[in-house]
Amino acid sequence: MGRSNLTRPSEFILLGLSSRPEDQKPLFAVFLPIYLITVIGNLLIILAIRSDTRLQTPMYFFLSILSFVDICYVTVIIPKMLVNFLSETKVISYGECLTQMYFFIAFGNTDSYLLAAMAIDRFVAICYPFHYITIMNHRRCVLLLIISFCIPHLHSLLHILLTNQLTFCASNVIHHFFCDDQPVLKLSCSSHFVKEITVMTEGLAVIMTPFSCIIISYLRILITVLKIPSAAGKHKAFSTCGSHLTVVTLFYGSISYVYFQPLSNYTVKDRIATIIYTILTPMLNPFIYSLRNKDMKQGLTKLMHQVKCQ
User: Fold this and answer.
1) For the chain, is the Cβ count within 10 Å smaller at the N or the C terminus?
2) Membrane-crossing residues (predicted)?
3) Model pTM greater than 0.85?
């Protein structure tokens, strides 16, 4: 595309993970199974929790919602990526690009708020076990769920409205495998000072709020567990948090690497890091929560037995 300014380009070209034609089919063969494993794995988690009365607790309620959001999260990205692997043009319309960006930001932030809700649940379960049922009642769980969806979607809407005000020029090639905020901003020739300030203020507040909840919850958990006299009691308390901590580390570690840096520093390495929290983490979540959780293993075994008996 030429260097004439385009307030609203009709389409973008997604460069993808590689621009070499010989890489496209092997990449398709890699990411199609990843997508299927992610969807099936998270769907099994949801069905196991819904079918087992022992898993009808706040912890597993939030886990089932997290699995649902993870399915939505990867579906926003991978199907279009798979189509582009087999297409020569690799185009995405302007409207489709903004829509993809909206749901990517919304579902990604919903994930972080759900992880915070799960951390709060573990904090109450370990620090206030005798008041757990009273504190984590149905009303409070629904309130946490509403917050987990409303704030991310409002945050995402703000960013899309600001992006829609930008003028694009020079190129319509997005050096990424989906319409992420940073690569799209790099194509803009108008001032995006307001957008960057918003990212570093409102965006930072939205991201740091759930992260702060997680940190504070686990500090309180650590203090409480260290007071437990027996080693067996300490191990049991920590074992209930292991899966959640693993997912939090993967999710926030990769996000911090990609986004907490200047826009000018965004490189191909960040595309690889993005794969971790957009694709690999949702795929690994079912394995992490099922392999390290005795109740979840039993729930999945019961589900499989019910399926075989039908």
Assistant:
1) C
2) 27-49, 61-82, 102-120, 141-162, 204-226, 238-260, 272-291
3) yes
At a CB cut-off of 8 Å and minimum separation 6, what does 104 contact? 73, 76, 77, 178, 179, 180, 278
Cα 198 from Cα 188, distance rounded (Å): 16
Q: Is 5 among the domain residues?
A: no
Looking at the structure of the chain, the number of domains it has is 1
Q: Give CA–CA dist 58/136, Å, rounded.
A: 7
Q: pLDDT (tens digit, 0 to 9) for every residue of the chain, 310 residues total?
A: 444 455 678 889 998 888 788 889 999 999 999 999 999 999 999 999 998 888 889 999 999 999 999 999 999 999 999 999 998 888 999 999 999 999 999 999 999 999 999 999 999 999 998 999 999 999 999 999 999 999 999 999 999 999 888 888 768 888 888 998 888 888 888 777 777 787 778 878 888 899 999 999 999 998 988 888 877 777 777 777 877 888 888 888 777 666 655 555 555 566 677 788 788 889 988 888 876 677 787 888 888 877 777 6
- Sequence-distant (≥ 6) Cβ neighbours of residue 49 within 8 angstroms: 55, 56, 60, 61, 63, 64, 299
Burial state string for 187-199 with b = 16 or more CB within 10 A and e = fewer than 16: bbeeebeebeebb
Give the Cα-Cα-Cα angle 308, 34, 172 (nearest 5 degrees): 145
Q: What gap in Å lies between CA 135 and CA 142, rounded to an integer?
A: 12
Q: Where are the alpha helices (DSSP H) in 164-228?
A: 181-185, 193-198, 204-226
In a domain? residue 6: no
Under the phi-then-psi rule, with left for phi > 0, alpha for psi from -120 to 50, and beta for the rest, what region is 110? Answer: alpha
Q: Do the domain assignments include residue 242?
A: yes
Distance CA 310, CA 305 (A): 9
Pairing state of beta strands 173-174 and 91-93? Answer: unpaired
Range of the domain at 153: 24-309
Please give the helix or strand (H or E) that residue 1 lies within, else none: none
Q: What is the CATH number of the domain that holds 73?
A: 1.20.1070.10
Residue written as token pair 């394995």: 287
